[in-house]
Amino acid sequence: MGRACKDAWDLLVLISSNAVFDGLVTFATQTARVFGFDECLVRPVPSRSFTSLAPRPRDTSFVTTKMQRQLGIRPLGVTEGLSLMYRTRLVVAGSA
To answer: pTM score > 0.85 for this model?
Structure first.
């Protein structure tokens, strides 16, 4: 694998095919569901509760069409990606 492809792949692992952020609460709830935690523990908090060194936009989602066209891969959806993380975690934990 060429360096450009490796760099692209390293980045793409972090990208989802659907807009994650119907909100962070939705993402946290999906994470709790996949990993078997109590979804009722997820509670929304106002964004002003989080301080940052620099201002951040509310929507930081990516358009993935160029990536899909150039690399020929489809990024995982949020639930699909979380499920893969969970299954991988079980395999790694079982081999330790």
So the answer is: no
